[in-house]
Amino acid sequence: METVTQANVWDAALLTLPQAHILQSWLWGELKGSRSWTPLRFLWRADDRAVAAAQVLVLQRGHLRLGYVPKGPLLDWADGALAETVLTQLATYAQRRGCLLLKIDPDVRADTDVGSRTAALLSKLGWRASFEQVQFRNTMLLDLQPTLDQLMEQMKPKWRYNIHLAVRKGVTIRDATPDDLSLLCAMYAETAARDSFVIREEAYYRDVWQRFMHAGMAWALIAEVNGAPVAMAIALHFGTRAWYMYGASRDAGRGFMPNHLLQWHIIRRAKEVGCTVYDLWGAPDTPDVTDPLWGLYRFKEGFGATFVPHLGAYDYTPRTWLYRLYAFLRPRAVAMAHRYHWARIRYT
Question: What is the model's pTM?
């Protein structure tokens, strides 16, 4: 287990590992490092090649120290011996650093033998299913290896129709520039208020989008009707994967189906740069019509994306009693913060 301090070494190593994730990239760590977190990058090698990696984000809050490995660690989870080594050494790190908890959240499929063995290994080593899922547990994946014609053909008929309808109605797509950041934030805030989900402050999104746009790791697209912006979508990409991370639309123009055309443009862009998988980022716990995310699930499924369930986040804690207290208080603090957030939006 070695510490990496060079961006090019880190990202190059990640891109040799299975399912290299954007949230494990150097740039994501630097982003979080500008906002109270301290990023640490650990690499495991065998025969001079990288076999595992974990970008640990450390947050110090008073006497509490929290660690988080977003969408990691990265390794071949079918290799049980390697997985045990990595998990054991991460647990040792948490103990030595006095962490209240260390959270991991690898993209391990829950509906496979590897998923079952990994869950059993985590339990054996003292990791527990987390009370708090920071990222979406499940997702929707679209295989980009077919041709564009094949990808269009595998969509639901209504989705193909809506893409063509948007074109006929004059919807145009353009690349956003840094000068459009205020517009992107305004559309995102409008969507959050309409659909009742909580978002961060504008400065955070400006920082995320500008960093990844500047690095050439983001497509920020704006849909317009007669020159007026009606929707936007932002996808990040790293290696052979792309992620649909942010989307927004205004009430005006929704009947022109701009969101369908935006997704088609992202699919085309992803294929052009050699991506083989498009992660549409986020799905219900179970694909059920009663789930609040059912509408998003149906939208993504219409493009031919497949529902993929993951094990979800796991925590390791050396201080069990304090962890239990934290697990009891944390959801209540978050709920109070959310109530304050919506009150502030409505009354200021």
Answer: 0.90
